[in-house]
Amino acid sequence: MTGVANDREARRADATQVTLASHDPQWAEMAARECARIAAAVGASVLRVEHIGSTAIPGIEAKPTIDLMPVVRSEADLDGCRAPMEMLGYLWRGEFGIAGRRYSVLEKDGKRLFHVHIFAEGHPNIATQVLFRDYLRAHRDEALAYEAIKREAAVANPWDSLAYNDHKSAWILACQQRARVWGGSR
Questions:
Q1: In this predicted model, what pLDDT tens digit does every residue of 92-139 receive, in sequence order?
Q2: By CB atoms within 10 Å of each CB, which of 1, 77, 117, 178 scores lowest?
Q3: pTM of the model
Q4: Domains plus CATH for the chain?
């Protein structure tokens, strides 16, 4: 198998059941606590930790797994995050399909609690994720459209989070483009 095929198979093996939940205001509090825990464990290389993904968008349904994005000073700091993240109980997945990312997950009692996407300052995915989040927070109609595509994807792929993500992909890419236009006009 090629490296790409191996990576796809690894991500497929990590796929989970898809369940959407009503927005929980506690998600923001949980995210803030975990951001602080990660920043303290990883140390001075962490510049900031962002709460991203659907749980960061008030008022829409989301998979109840919180996405966090620590930003470290440089690419040289990325792999140094592994031991501290594992000490916090995270399962380290490496790049896991996105070049320049270090991905890990935290599970408890068979439930996926957090996805952590670590990037080095300057990686284009940082601005993309933050702008997408901020755009959806500022545009309720877009947030509701995102919720609708998430529901459609969950119905079509209830047992496969990878297929669920693939189902949403075109809509997200188009929305990210609208967010870039909006971000440039602010």
A1: 999 999 999 999 999 999 899 999 999 999 999 999 999 999 999 999
A2: 1
A3: 0.92
A4: 3-185 (3.30.460.10)
